[in-house]
Queue: 4 jobs
Job 1
Amino acid sequence: MAKDKSSTVQIQTYADHHVITQPNPLRKVLRRVAEKDLDDPVARAEKALAGLSGEFKNWMAAETDRLAAAHAAVLKDGFTKATREELFRAAHDIKGDAATFGFPSAGATAESLCRIIEHAPDLDKVPSDLIAHHINAIKAIVHEHTKLDTASTASELSRQLRGVADEYLAQVNRDRPEHLEAILAPSIVPAE
């Protein structure tokens, strides 16, 4: 049982200092719980994620469909402010969701696509194949995720695309040092 402390400020004086102890009003509302009743929020969250994990592939498929639709709009209308933003948002959402949903290589590939969109000085001059290869890789990684030999292939594909994207960005930004620093910074490509 906790000791009853006064509800006033307590001051202990020593030769070279003072210790001031203020009352803690939260002690009055604190409830003690038996060891066996302790809640583990991490375990609870993991259990909830496990229950939802069957939906992850469908959610990623919906995200890749959104990315493909954004790319189709770019191919149809070119890079307008709206098409650029939608392509970036779709890739960025995949980048953020992929690792949680069990698709880290798709996330790394989406990150590479985001870097192209962010750092290319003129998106209309970016080779259309470079963007298409990123989108097709993300779609393939998500679609083929259940096959046993795809993890290493997906990781290698994402690493290769990042390398090509970085080479392209370094070349087109050679006169823009503020972008080169971000482009040349190392990044970690997660393993599957």
Job 2
Amino acid sequence: MKSGKLWLLAILFLGSGLARADERDVWMFAQWAGDHQTRPFREMLVEARLYGVVPIHQLLRSASDWRLCRASPFAVPPASHWPAVRSTLSLLKALDEQGILRQFEVVSGYRDPRLNACAGGAPSSAHMRAFAVDLLLPPWADPNPLCQFWQEHGEAWGMGLGRYPSGRIHIDTAGYRTWGGDGRPGSSFCSKPR
């Protein structure tokens, strides 16, 4: 069996029993991936030992408003963004290893500028200029350990942490900052330590 089919079967198996908050599942990804070049991106993740930190079908999800914006449901970030992808995934891996972020679903990753504007993203959003993820936690999960991590270690990581009224949480490594539903630091569920 070709290696391309092996990785596809692996994500189908790994993602088959998980609850989904987003319709862009492994089946939709498999159809999309057949027509798009993902191999160099996947190889980069493997070489960086970051493949599987986030299931590939979630990692490559574009904006949730992809249909409304007539865009692709998935997107591979440009190679110039890959260092930021590695940085953000390394942070997610550290959060998992410390027991802070164990169960989550990524619902948005890289967005090109047109899709970002259509989806209502900030004009200088890390989704398009670096790499960011918007994720959902299970309803029972407490987001406060993320806040504590951001307060204690966020500056060293260059961690951006935002939370939207929908409950989505934004994480990136494009600069130490936080914000809430109105996009301002004062509305964040997490404030800088004094």
Job 3
Amino acid sequence: MNHYETFYQLHHQHTPLMLANAWNVKSAQIIEQNAYDAIGTSSGAIANSLGYEDGEKIPFSELLYMIQRIKASTNIPLSVDLERGYTDNLKELTENIQQLMDIGVAGINLEDSQGEEIYLKKLYAIKNHLKKSNQQLFINARTDGFLLKVDAPLETTIRRAKLYQDAGADGLFVTAISDADTIRKIASSTTLPLNVVGSPKLSSIQTLSEYGVRRISMVVFLYRASYNQLDRLVKDVKAQQSFEPLF
């Protein structure tokens, strides 16, 4: 199987896909070396590591360079957090997608924070481009109704899931949910594999699997935990006036 096919199958297995999110080559290599089946990127982590705020503040060219280096240095499927696509121009969007395809990316996350009308135009543009060029890309449709506190977020999420699936999405990523009943309702309402973020309230992979979740992401939390550890180390060296904490 190619990386797209492998990545697709990982969303339709007995146990959920546990996806660690990298921000540079070294973090991606550590993820691969520890027998994860795939790598995701975190847009927030990549941006922050290069001195940018999250939310498409990083130029696409700089993001693309990081993706190139990660893909060239690892051998498992790679999925890219593409935020809103880094453009509202549909021609530019498909050009961005093609650049990712040329690198060998297996999947993307694409978020609907601009609303479903704009999102559907982007989704259709991507799918049409892939069809015309005979290429495959796993599109994880990220819907932010709960995160943005829209009216009736559960109903909105379920409705959008149907729209996005009809438009060609391969997965559904729902952010800012940690209530078990809500997760069950969303999972049972769609045949798309459901992706959520691991959280303090829902940290058990087994529990999330029982709720119907098929993919669990670490998003920016792995990056933050890593640099929190670095912060503690440099503080300990200074406080102890010794390099012993490093060894």
Job 4
Amino acid sequence: MNFPEHLRPKMARAQHMDAQDPPLIALVGRESGPRVSQTHHHAAGQLLGLFNGLLSIRTNLGAWVVPTTRAVWVPPHCPHAAFSHGPFNGWAVYVRPDKCAGLPEQPRAIEVSGLLREAVVRAAQWDLGEPNRVQTNVMNVILDEIAGSPADAFRLPMPGDARLRRIAAAIVDEPANARTLDAWAAWANTAPRTVSRRFVEETGLTFTAWRQRARLLRGLELLASGQAVGTVALDLGYDNASAFIALFRRTFNTTPGRYFAAGAPEVADVGEDLADGIAARYPSFE
């Protein structure tokens, strides 16, 4: 991400954290175009999130398409790659290796609460150095949110069975394909009941839910590239935009237009969620 000149030393330090650094380093930045970060790893744990736009994260355990409502946790020394789908405003939290004890040991997506987002915005304002009491409390909020957030399954898990993988790959390549489950089973030379049962066993989703997820994730990519909602809905096989918008709203609690129109908050704009959350968990904050 692009950072002002005075924040570049902070970014450089975040990539090589050790015992001399604060427990975590938070950064906020933006990109005016697509960004690709090839596979790499670092000693610090990392939490990646967005204020607007769309980001994809790949690890050895899977891939996530990350909307503004989620973030991806990458533990220390875990190889990962990231790329954006057009312009975005994002944030990152780097956690000192020794402070990652008790945090998830595997990469995962988590839901981003208002408290977490606002704590990150607050922490991004700080210079490097020994944290004071208030800063330590805010850092603890961030660490508690990472540790306590349940894993979010917002990704497209691929089945292991070769026949099901063939079906899944074909749907990903052509999400508008309207074949029924029975037709897909015949195409893959297997029984419909096998497809239905194994999809649930191997992905945790029914065939219908998996196909909806594939369409939605592809829709996010198309919307992020600037295509109109109606065009995207038709490209995904929907008869009209209303059905796609309804699925989008159920998943993200907003419409596609509002989702991609949302902007990043000002760094100083920290809401009441942060103060209330810290006061509840750390009474000495007041």
